[in-house]
Design brief:
The protein is mainly beta and 159 residues long. The chain has one domain: Beta Barrel (Porin), CATH 2.40.160. It is built from one helix and eleven strands, in the order βββββββββββα. It has an eight-stranded antiparallel β-barrel. A hairpin with a 7-residue loop joins strand 1 and strand 2. The longest helix is centred in the C-terminal third of the chain and has 15 residues.
């Protein structure tokens, strides 16, 4: 019977080098035993007119190790985010209901030390199918002390 336990929190800033491009911040709780994102929140901002200010309050997903050569491994992570539930407006002939729409689709490819990498993501603006795409963004870890603790957990699991 295995008693593997491991949960850590990681905060990432995801940006491009383009002036005025959106900036995404994600705060994730990651379960190393199940290899999944247990929960998280995201915030996308952009200093344009009108300013962009979107949030996803429930993130979940999973990750796996990608090794293309024996010494070159990355962590691939797929995460989906949902907004807070809203009451849909009453349309004649339809019922009023709660709408929970996905608002963020994030794909991260991190270096095997969890510190940095690349990302692509899509976010929904408003209702409907108005998705905006950001590709080839830089990922930077904002809380490196959490990862050093995670490394110790992984070392214990393999011992």
């Amino acid at each position: 019977m295995s008693n593997n336990i491991g949960l850590f929190i990681a905060s990432y800033e995801i940006t491009t080098d383009l002036v005025g491009a959106p900036a995404l911040r994600v705060d994730l709780s990651i379960d190393v035993v199940k290899k999944e994102v247990v929960s998280g929140v995201a915030h996308i901002s952009q200093a344009t007119n009108p300013p962009l200010d979107l949030s996803a309050y429930r993130l979940s997903g999973n990750y796996y190790y990608m090794c293309v050569m024996p010494d070159t491994c990355h962590i691939a992570m797929d995460v989906t985010g949902w907004e807070m539930p809203e009451i849909s407006p009453k349309i004649p002939g339809e019922h009023v209901g709660i709408v929970i729409a996905d608002t963020l689709k994030l794909k991260l490819v991190l270096n095997d030390d969890w510190q940095s990498g690349k990302a692509g993501y899509q976010y929904r603006e408003g209702f409907g199918d108005n998705w905006k795409k950001v590709e080839n963004a830089n990922v930077k870890l904002l809380s490196p002390q959490c990862i050093s603790q995670h490394k110790k957990v992984e070392e214990l699991e393999t011992a």
